[in-house]
């Protein structure tokens, strides 16, 4: 039997084949919908392409949260409190990695391109406010530093610092590991904390890497991030969020 390829078909037929393929792909990634009965007894169906947040984000939590324009004062207060706490607990001075006046500049904000369901998001994410030291307490004191930082985070409404997954070279010897990291979050904003002392790596690999990359041998670092509603769009967000309040978010249908 003779087999035809696209190059053997008339142009019009090729266009029909391509159109059919594209239509099929579109159907495969169609946005999910949810239906519910409202207080008047009417059935309401919502298309998650209209969800104003993001598939991995609790959109309702943002309704009472500061937006992009309002976030800065509280975030600065949190980072200042953590700087004092960590410095007191570790004996190390934490200094800004970039001018603090630039922390909330436009270059540190990243508007989300999609909501994970094929629609637009009204959210934006900031990563900023890095503070670093060039010295660190003895590794036996790292848990004390982490505990003190957790208390400050909880006072600010975040959860405690939770250790991240250990790198492979630390599995089974957490107390002797030369690198540890942890994150505190309230689901909207987060702070990461790292502590490292490359001289503790008995293989010498960590120290050699620091020398090659011109990195400090030891130090503490913290940084801030949050995903919130874009400036000036709080009202639009609230109205768009209303039909989705109380609904369980489906799994994302797109990778944006």
Distance between the termini: 43 Å
**Name given to the CATH architecture of the domain at 61-114 and 122-233:** 2-Layer Sandwich
CATH class of the domain at 61-114 and 122-233: Alpha Beta
Shape: elongated
| Beta-strand residue fraction | 15-25%
Query: What would the average pLDDT be, to the nearest integer?
Result: 87
Kindly state the number of beta strands: 9
Q: What is the subunit arrangement here?
A: single chain
- The stretches of 5 or more residues where confidence is low (pLDDT under 50) are 1-28
Quick one: biggest sheet?
Answer: 7 strands, antiparallel
**Tally of individual helices:** 5
Elements, N to C (H/E): HEEHEEEHEEEHEH
Structural class comes to alpha+beta
Percent helix range:
25-40%
Q: What is the gyration radius calculated from CA atoms? A: 25 Å
Organism: Cryobacterium cryoconiti
Protein name: Lipoprotein
Keywords: Signal
Signal peptide: 1-30
What would you note in describing this structure?
By secondary structure, the chain is an alpha+beta fold. It has a domain at 61-114 and 122-233: TBP-like, CATH 3.30.2030. The chain is built from five helices and nine strands; from the N terminus they run H-E-E-H-E-E-E-H-E-E-E-H-E-H. The chain has helices at residues 11-28, 72-90, 142-155, 205-213, 234-241, and strands at 33-37, 43-47, 95-96, 109-111, 123-132, 162-163, 179-185, 189-197, 218-229. The strands form two sheets. Strands 3, 4, 5, 6, 7, 8 and 9 form a seven-stranded antiparallel β-sheet that branches. Helix 2 runs antiparallel to helix 3. The longest helix is centred in the first third of the chain and has 19 residues, at 72-90. The protein is elongated, with a radius of gyration of 25 Å. Residues 1-30 form the signal peptide. This is Lipoprotein.
């Amino acid at each position: 039997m003779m087999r035809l390829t696209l190059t053997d078909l008339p142009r019009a037929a090729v266009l029909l084949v391509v159109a059919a393929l594209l239509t099929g792909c579109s159907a495969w990634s169609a946005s999910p919908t949810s239906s519910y009965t409202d207080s008047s007894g009417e059935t309401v169906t919502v298309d998650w392409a209209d969800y104003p947040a993001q598939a991995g984000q609790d959109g309702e939590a943002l309704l009472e949260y500061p937006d992009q324009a309002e976030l800065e004062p509280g975030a600065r207060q949190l980072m200042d409190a953590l700087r004092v706490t960590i410095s007191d607990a570790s004996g190390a001075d934490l200094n800004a990695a970039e001018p603090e006046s630039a922390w909330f500049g436009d270059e540190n904000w990243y508007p989300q391109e999609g909501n994970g369901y094929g629609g637009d998001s009204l959210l934006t994410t900031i990563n900023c406010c890095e503070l670093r030291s060039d010295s660190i307490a003895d590794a036996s004191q790292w848990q004390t530093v982490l505990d003190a930082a957790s208390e400050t985070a909880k006072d600010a409404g975040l959860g405690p610092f939770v250790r991240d997954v250990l790198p492979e070279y630390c599995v089974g010897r957490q107390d002797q590991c030369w690198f540890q990291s942890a994150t505190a979050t309230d689901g909207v904003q987060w702070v990461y904390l790292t502590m490292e002392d490359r001289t503790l790596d008995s293989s010498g690999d960590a120290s050699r890497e620091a020398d090659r990359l011109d990195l400090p041998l030891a130090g503490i670092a913290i940084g801030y991030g949050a995903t919130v509603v874009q400036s000036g769009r709080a009202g639009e967000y609230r109205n768009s969020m209303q039909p989705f309040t109380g609904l369980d978010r489906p799994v994302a249908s797109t990778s944006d």
